[in-house]
């Protein structure tokens, strides 16, 4: 296929869910162009230490509420194996640099202080936005290692104690780690099987083209032309761009004519979170593995320095794998150095916590989401106080080019279910647009015939056509 009704750029969960809705509603000539050699986007598994680990999205967040999380429904439908993750005890498993765990009372007091400070900061920002004045009371910055560690847990590790977050309010507060040999990505393959031709788990449908790096999107009144890095050219009536916000901020993809200023400014204003899970394999387990000890914290003078740890024994007993999570500047720093350098740093931290006699790691896996030109980060991160118009401008279509992805989800940005629902919403909006265009076509054809037969066509007809075209 080189022509289609709709071209979808990107085969992550938004792109796949968008394509599925279109096909189910009669738009069968869709074409999905994916830059890599697989579907899944930022949902990606890799075998490490004889078990599959999730390099990107790893949890189904928001389970157990009155309303059902659609991704949890998919996981249940396709028998995805998961493990409940209990974060509540993490704050009481905080190690100092001498290997001692902070007393429960000190940890609880430090945590309460951090939450109060975060709420005060939020109120301060709200006051500045509403009145332009600085609040009388300003939050204190974390200074001690334990304060820095807890601040990292609250603000970087997605723990939702500071303000109500729609995911937990709507769907429930429980989170489940994906621990399935097929990987989290199997949900996308199962979805794809419902509208693309597959054989023995392989997608053989020519409506999905892998290794097609889109570099340019040209649109006119009559349609859209998409050009790829290998010189391929595709044509469509409409395009859905499901590339990440990080990619949209980069120079990988260009638009002709250029996107309007309101669009580019909105895209650049959205922050990108870099979230790196580093996996370490050991010859044996040397860390506590009892109830409430899945997660543990390292308190260091440098914020976010190998702070948040998790063992994989609950998910894969006997795997002897530890995971440490880095974010943002620490992620970028580690991506720029060798894996062996990162291994040394991680081992130094572990020996602080568990002693110098622990065994050295036998292997390490360091994902590089920031330096991946097809991702450029892990997920969108809107400011704590932001104008709703910012998100509306990011998700708004420009002519025949529509935008989707977790960054366009009004309530669930940053989450897998946000990406899934965004793809559905974008396709439904496009279907309405296509329906309106079909309704308008006879009227447009009529006015074109008038133009051919009269030097001065009826101005009232043109006024009505322009008005309808603009609102559609």
TrEMBL record:
<dbReference type="InterPro" id="IPR050281">
    <property type="entry name" value="Flavin_monoamine_oxidase"/>
</dbReference>
<keyword id="KW-0274">FAD</keyword>
<keyword id="KW-0560">Oxidoreductase</keyword>
<keyword id="KW-0285">Flavoprotein</keyword>
<comment type="similarity">
    <text>Belongs to the flavin monoamine oxidase family.</text>
</comment>
<keyword id="KW-0732">Signal</keyword>
<protein>
    <submittedName>
        <fullName>FAD/NAD(P)-binding domain superfamily</fullName>
    </submittedName>
</protein>
<dbReference type="GO" id="GO:0006598">
    <property type="term" value="P:polyamine catabolic process"/>
</dbReference>
<feature type="domain" description="Amine oxidase">
    <location>
        <begin position="13"/>
        <end position="104"/>
    </location>
</feature>
<dbReference type="InterPro" id="IPR002937">
    <property type="entry name" value="Amino_oxidase"/>
</dbReference>
<feature type="domain" description="Amine oxidase">
    <location>
        <begin position="168"/>
        <end position="429"/>
    </location>
</feature>
<comment type="pathway">
    <text>Amine and polyamine degradation; spermine degradation.</text>
</comment>
<dbReference type="GO" id="GO:0050660">
    <property type="term" value="F:flavin adenine dinucleotide binding"/>
</dbReference>
<dbReference type="GO" id="GO:0046592">
    <property type="term" value="F:polyamine oxidase activity"/>
</dbReference>
<feature type="signal peptide">
    <location>
        <begin position="1"/>
        <end position="18"/>
    </location>
</feature>
<dbReference type="Pfam" id="PF01593">
    <property type="entry name" value="Amino_oxidase"/>
</dbReference>
């Amino acid at each position: 296929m080189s022509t289609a009704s709709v071209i979808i750029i990107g085969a992550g969960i938004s792109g796949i869910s968008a394509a599925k809705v279109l096909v189910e509603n009669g738009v069968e000539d869709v074409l999905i162009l994916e830059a890599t050699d697989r579907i899944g986007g930022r949902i990606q598994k890799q075998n490490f230490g004889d078990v599959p680990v999730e390099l990107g999205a790893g949890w189904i967040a928001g389970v157990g509420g009155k309303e059902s999380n659609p991704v949890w429904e998919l996981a249940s439908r396709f028998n995805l194996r998961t493990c409940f993750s209990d974060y509540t005890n993490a704050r009481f498993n905080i190690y100092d640099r001498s290997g001692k765990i902070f007393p429960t009372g000190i940890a609880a007091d430090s945590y309460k202080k951090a939450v109060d400070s975060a709420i005060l900061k939020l109120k301060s920002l709200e006051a500045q936005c509403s009145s332009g004045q600085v609040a009388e009371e300003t939050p204190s910055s974390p200074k001690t290692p334990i304060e820095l560690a807890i601040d990292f847990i609250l603000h970087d590790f997605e723990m939702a104690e500071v303000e109500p977050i729609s995911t937990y309010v709507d769907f429930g507060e429980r989170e489940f780690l994906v621990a399935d040999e097929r990987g989290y990505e199997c949900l996308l393959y199962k979805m794809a099987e419902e509208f693309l031709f597959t054989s023995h788990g392989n997608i053989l449908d020519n409506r999905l083209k892998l290794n097609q790096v889109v570099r340019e999107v040209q649109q006119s009144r009559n349609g859209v032309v998409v050009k790829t890095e290998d010189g391929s050219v595709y044509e469509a009536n409409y395009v859905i761009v499901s590339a990440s916000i990080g990619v949209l901020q980069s120079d990988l993809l260009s638009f002709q004519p250029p996107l309007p200023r309101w669009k580019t400014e909105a895209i650049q204003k959205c922050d990108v979170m870099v979230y790196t899970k580093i996996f370490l394999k050991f010859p044996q387990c040397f860390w506590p593995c009892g109830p409430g000890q899945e997660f543990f914290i390292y308190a260091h003078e440098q914020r976010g320095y190998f702070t948040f740890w998790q063992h994989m024994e609950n998910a894969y007993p006997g795997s002897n794998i530890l995971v440490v999570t880095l974010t943002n500047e620490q992620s970028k720093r580690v991506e720029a150095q060798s894996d062996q350098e990162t291994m040394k740093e991680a081992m130094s931290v572990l020996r602080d916590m568990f002693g110098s006699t622990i065994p050295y790691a036998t292997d390490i896996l360091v994902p590089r989401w920031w330096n991946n030109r097809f991702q450029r980060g892990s997920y969108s991160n809107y400011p704590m106080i932001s104008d709703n118009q910012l998100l509306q401008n990011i998700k708004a279509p420009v002519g025949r080019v529509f935008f989707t992805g977790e960054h366009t989800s009004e309530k669930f940005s940053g989450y897998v279910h946000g990406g899934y629902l965004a793809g559905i919403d974008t396709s439904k909006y496009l279907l309405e647009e296509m329906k309106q265009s079909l309704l308008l076509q006879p009227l447009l054809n009529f006015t074109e015939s008038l133009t051919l037969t009269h030097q001065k066509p009826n101005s009232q007809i043109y006024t009505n056509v322009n008005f309808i075209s603009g609102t559609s």
